[in-house]
Every structure is written in C-alpha cells, then in structure tokens.
Amino acid sequence: MLELRALTKRYGDRVALRTLDLRLPRRCLTVLLGPNGAGKSTLFQVASGLFAADSGDVLVDGLSMRTHARLALARIGVVFQQMSLDLDLSVAHNLQFHADLHGLPRAVARERIAAGAAAFGLAADLNRSARELSGGTRRKVELARALLHRPPLLLLDEPTVGLDPASRHELMAAIRRDVADRGTCVLWATHLVDEAQLADRVLLLHKGVLRADGTPEQVSSTLGGGTLEQAFMRATA
Q1: Most buried residue among 38, 91, 105, 226 by CB atoms closer than 10 A?
Q2: What are phi and psi of 59, to 5 degrees?
Q3: Taking a C-beta distance cutoff of 8 angstroms, is the pair 127, 174 a contact?
C-alpha cells in the first residue's frame, strides 16, 4: 500500500532522509519509532505531498507521487503532529469541509460524519467550535476527519502528543479497529517506545536512516537484545 524507493530529502547540506526503501502492506499497524530529529516528520511531509523528495519516489497503492499525485493523495488520510483544525469552525463544519474536498456527496458525508462522531464519542460536540475543545477531543476530530473518505493508507505523525493516558489508549484502540475492520495500512510515527510495543511492525529511524525493521521482538534482537526500550536507547545514543 505504501512503497518508498530510494527516497532522499535534504535541507541544504543536511540529509534528512537517506535512500529509504520500504514496503508496507494492507492490514498492518506499523510504528515508525525514532528520537526527535530522526526524520519522521520529514518522511510524513514527503509521503503526504507537502514536500517533494530530492530523489527517489513514494508510491501509494502503486501510484507514484511524482506522476499521479492527485490519485495517490486521494487514498491517504493524515493526522499531522501539529493541530490542523479550523478553530473558528464547528466540529461538524470541519468534517464537512474535508468531505467536500474529497468530493463526497452530501448524503454520504452526513452518514459518515454521524458514524465517525459516534465512534469517537463526538456526537455531543458536533455543534461546538473546535476552539472550545480539549486537546484530546481535537485529536479525535482530526482522526474522524482523516477517516471520512475511507482511505486505505493512514499516516499518523505523533498523534498522541499532549494526550492523557486514557486518550492515548482510546486512540490506539480506534486505529486497531480500523486496521481489523477495513484492512487499513497505518504508519504511526512516535518517539514513545510503549506505543511501538503494540505494533505489528516497528521501523527504527535514526538520522534519516532505517536502522531496524520487524516485529518489536525482532527489532530488539537486531539491536542487541533486551527490551525494546533498551535497544532503542542503544541505537539512538
């Protein structure tokens, strides 16, 4: 569902991503684990079309971001690290605007907004402005928005930043349900090892280079054994 081919991105003389090669299948929750500055956000910005790679390519469901960007982007749902709701719009209007951008018929959009609100406990907040919501509730709105057009690929960049433990657990559970129900391919970026331990697959990114790839247990073994946290600390010291 997501393929990176020799992907490289530079900022001047600094290489943020160095010839990354990667293939992610459907029905898989993959955590991209790395410290701050590892290149995680840059990877998401390139994969979501905000930045252009210096070399290499990103393919979404076989569609190149270089030659078929519009079709590729239609298959992606994104939650960025920084909050991206319009604070002056209501929750319902934020969701409807996203549905309009993806060309969903109004009747379909209404059904999906209602379903998303029910799934994330937002039904009572639909008429509230986003500005009135807590950080955790805003995150739920962003996730509901990312799923409105039923994308087969979901990119989540540090989605639990600022959330309390209960909200983090609810968010992970919601993503797990979507992977199971729709066969979604999820790439979840984080620097929190406990989130990576719940993944089907872990990618360890450090200084723009993929250092390890496998189940949490395989990654720990590849990096010298012990717990995943111990392996992560050794690999990124």
Answers
A1: 91
A2: -120, 135
A3: no
